[in-house]
Sequence to fold (138 residues):
Amino acid sequence: MPVGAPDPATLGPLARKVLHYSDVMERAVVAAKEPGFNDSGWDELTGLIDKAKFERVGNDKAVMGWEVYRALLNGWAGGTDYWSQFRRISEVGNVVFLELTEHNTPRGGAESVVNSMSVYEYDEGGKLVHLDIYLQHD
Fold:
């Protein structure tokens, strides 16, 4: 879970889901460095989304579905140390806005620190169907 995140009990139901998603992501990034880690290491995260509808829009407006995003996560997580610091979270309708300061240190590289804002959109069943990522770099 992002450092400094609020007590989930003080948040709405979807904001709690987003903090849980963040926690699962950070744990998977740590686990990705262990021998034998593979696509199944993302199963807990997969359970939080609607795989058929999921769409992630990231840097340069690159759009990807779950299978492509999972492959991107595998490559990234296995080669970087990552942690995040909580800034702000807001829940409006079926959308949650999460602001973090994210720290990535690629193996053999220098730490990169970015401010991020991620927009999580949920369907009526409480599954994540759309994720937008916005980054501020130095």
